Amino acid sequence: MIPHHTVWMKANDDTRNSTSYDPEKTNLRYSTLEGKTMNFLWIGGFAIPAIEISILFWLCAIGAGFAYGWLFEDIPEIHSDTSYKTSDEDNIPSNSEEIGE
Amino acid sequence: MISPLQTWGGELPVQYSSDLAVILVGVYSVAMIGIGLLASRYMDSEESYFVAGRRGGLLVIGLSYMATAASGWGMIGVTGAVYLSGAEYLILEMIAPLLTPLPFWLLARKLRVLGALKNAITGPDALVHRFQDRRLRLLGAASVVLSCIGLIATQYAALGVVGALILPVDFIGALIIGLVVIGIYTVIGGMLAAIWSDTIQGAMMAVGGIVAIGYVVFNYPGGTTGMVQTLQTEAPAMLEFSVLGGDPALGPWFLGTFLLLLLTFGGVPAFFTRFYMSRSVSTLRWGFLLAAVAYATATLYWWVGLYVRAGEARGLFEVPTPDAALPIALIELAPPIVTAFVLTAVIAAIMSTTNAWLNIAASAVQHDVINCYLGYDLDQDREVRWGRITTVCVMVLAFVVAASFQGLIFVLGSAGFALGACVFFPGVVLGYNWKGATTEGALWGGTIGLLATLLLVLAPQYLGLQVLPAGALGGPIGTLIGIVVFVGVSLVTNTNSYKDIDDKDIRDVIDTGRIRGNPFSERAPTASDGGTEADD
């Protein structure tokens, strides 16, 4: 089990590590977040930032996919002017053997 | 990745018996063998065996791409990790759907064009054509085989664990049954069977993710609100941000190396194959979007981990091991048919991912080493036959390595991606996007990157040497070392940098834009080969 220890939320960490641990007091973390640092991600009805952040990632991924497809330029089928052989011996110019030797 | 799935030879201590699940797995297995037989009718060349004859359509490319990145190991293991570590780990994993499709942007157009111009079918092909040095062929083949062995081993572990849960056999029995099915349709059907099965797997994973989270949310007492309230009062640490564990050193090291792993995903050779095999460049247009949506849907499984943790805190479930989180949630909260379907989807994911990696490894041995490096000029029938023989050899070799590896299975898995990326990210991703890349850079960067990755991954397992800070993943750091050496050496050398490349085709591939730009506009277009689209 990975030990949890608040770094980003120092105030909450102090609360959790106090000897008089009070779950209700811990819940203040959410009311503290709400309206402050995480407000821009807060969506009514959801209770944890993980959901909002995950939705943000999903939207970014889907948005990037749309942008890629929207801007994508097709390339008609092309062909090489040079013939290709299976073996490297037939494909790599002989002067390439000088590299690093 | 800190996925807790690490059991080799173990079974989940979960009571589950369902004739329906056995029937579904049986039907799926028979269907896969049928696909293998069907695909074998199209096997008449190395190109058809290893890149499915370049007939992949949008559905095939998008879904098989996602299915390559996400697997049954992730469905079980990441859900268990979220159960173990909480929402913070979930957020970290949720970056994957955003970063995993990045190779589309970096490479898709370029590699599709390279495949058409040079008949490239493997990762080492891309290296050799760019840098014109056949030593890179061997380096690339070694990287691919080592990478695939690590990744296949993780799938073997997951196959045994999940198979033993569904079928009335133990770990080894489930593994053997699974390998026989995989072996038959891989050996017979090659990459064409792989991408068809990957497509089916991708669709099953996406549907299963929606259904699974739907039943869990609606049937958990109080739904999402109930889950959050329980965690707030009973396990508040599950909802806190702590940079993964709170140790000021451990958290950032893990976070940094994990992000590095995702950012260098573009160097995983299996993705190259997806680009090579697309029917045309235009097929790739919406592949990014499809892969991102499908992957986002598949991440819904991971949310189940939070509900299971909350349910355990309320006394609703008993969770003997994190790997059991997803099966337990389904058994307790979903109808038997949904549980059977989702567990079958997990088996399907494991099988098709194993199948895909087997093909990639076999192509490295047969195409890169036997055909290209050693220069054996095999006729088409012998090429396909040797492809099948090498597939079986890799399958057995991976089994031996997996069964004899003393470390954690997930170490093999996370290292598997890095063992590919350490050579191919600098050599191919950077090589085709940076005109200053040189042959010396690719040779030195790839070699040192591969050795560093092996050292950082294996030294802690076999020599007891902890050369990295706690929390750091060795594989991505090995990749980073390879990239740094590649860039540094390229800056002071010039062999086969862009202006020194004689082959105009390769210069044009480098000039091909990641999204726009067509340096081939002056060339006469040719008619499409008219092949049947693989997802027709």
Low-confidence stretches of chain B: 1-6, 527-536
Portion in helices of chain B: over 70%
| Mean pLDDT score of chain B | 82
The chain-level structural class of chain A is mainly alpha
Number of strands of chain B: 0
> Judging from the principal axes of the Cα atoms, what is the shape of chain A?
elongated
**Helix content percent band of chain A:** 40-55%
Task: Throw out a few tags for this protein.
heterodimer, A: about 100 residues, mainly alpha, 5 helices, elongated, disordered N terminus, B: about 525 residues, 22 helices, about 0% strand, disordered C terminus
Could you describe the 3D structure shown?
The complex is a heterodimer of chains A (101) and B (536). Chain A has five helices and no strands. The longest helix of chain A is centred in the middle third of the chain and has 23 residues. Chain A starts with 9 loop residues before the first helix and ends in a 10-residue tail after the last helix. Chain B has 536 residues and is mainly alpha-helical. The longest helix of chain B has 49 residues. Chain B is globular, with a radius of gyration of 23 Å. Chain B starts with 18 loop residues before the first helix and ends in a 25-residue tail after the last helix. The chains are: A mainly alpha (101), B mainly alpha (536). Chains A and B meet through α4 and α5 of A and α5, α7, α11, α14 and α17 of B.
